[in-house]
Records
---
Amino acid sequence: MTRKEKATRIRKILDDLYPAPPIPLEHADPFTLLVAVVLSAQTTDVQVNKVTPALFAKASTPKALAALSEAEILAFIRSCGLAPGKARNIRKLAQTLVDEYGGKVPRDMDALEELPGVGHKTASVVMSQAFGEPAFAVDTHIHRLAARWGLSNGKSVEQTERDLKKVFPRDEWSRRHLQIIYFGRQYCPARNHDQAGCPICSWAAKSNRSRTRSR
């Protein structure tokens, strides 16, 4: 089975399971989504959603957030991983938006990636989920599943992104990103995974295929 043939079967399974996957991070606009995604690095979405309501009640715009001190921001996000660095970057990010973009989140991948604390994955999420632009955000979980399913060689996140963009139609990238995240949480944990009972790994995972051929 080729990668595209496999991806076609996976698309059907994902659409059946998650026809309209919601964005897991609570937000009201591109800026609050951007901040939430920055906070989500090495932290669960559940934890981010616990801290952002109070933070955004205090400062939900770049100007308001830039007016806070790092210590004030840190007090809101302390329970998130890498909180001191995130507090510093979020304040710098907000100030950069005020100084260089009139308090608006730029609708441009390169501009987003230049913002403090914003990498390619974060920029991809904002472009796709906030602006509806085709982008396939690949985090470590999607990277792991793509390799497990044989859709990518798994050598790097960047290569995985290129491989997934080849096998999934461009207008589906944003939806597939969310679907794979939800599927991974429900069916494909990194440890103690029941491959035989998984709707995709049961037939797509490399180890299963090897066992089948050896019988």
Note: The two ends are 19 Å apart (CA to CA).
---
Amino acid sequence: MTHRPTTGIFPGTFDPVTNGHMDVIRRGQMLFDRLVVAIGHNPAKKALFSQGERQQIIEQLVREQCEEHVVVECFTGLTVDYARKIGATAILRGLRNVTDLNFEFQLALTNRAVADIETVFIMTGEAHAFTSSTLIKQIAAGGDIDRLHRLVPPAVIREMKRIQAANGGRIPLRLIDHFQE
């Protein structure tokens, strides 16, 4: 029996990338011959970082913490369409809690029925079970970014401080037009 190479896709907005995301990437890389961290655009969410900024941060973290077969790419549109385009054999998803499980289970069944793609779930590490990018942005908007050191990588804190300094001590959340990136 010949080994068929596998490609996994770990999609998300990653705005910002958290230590929980990196935990899933590090553990998920062992499941695939190639893992694509796919940074999507969600027009309904207010963004802290542009897709390009998120890609640069995650690429740096992947170089420092992961193996060579992990790559970072940006996409627009439906995840299943992008997964098909890159030949992904499965979607990798991290689960933090039962609420995530309910949502992700429904999404996984839909993706299998509509796009014939499987989903692989990894439980996040206990230290990351309460962390979300939305929560991170809310805390950062309060001003004391250093409080986030256990939740996000140092590169994210540096970039948040850069944004804060450029905006008079505030973290503005803005809608970014993905066509401008």
Note: The longest strand covers residues 7-12.
